[in-house]
Design a protein that fits this description.
71 residues
Amino acid sequence: MPFKSQAQRRKFAELLVKGEISPETFEEWNRETGKQKLPERVTPATRKAAKRKATKRKATGSKRKAASKKR
């Protein structure tokens, strides 16, 4: 799986130095990423939108349960 951002690449390098991941794993991810120009971070707006969708689903599900209990 390729890296998605420069921050993720740095985090994996840190884990490699600490010995928490193998050098093979780091090299595999690095190879798959290639020489792509990566963003510094993944867009925060994308994560917020996903969180909002999950929240809406939970609220909708509880309303349905309440409606079915009334019947």
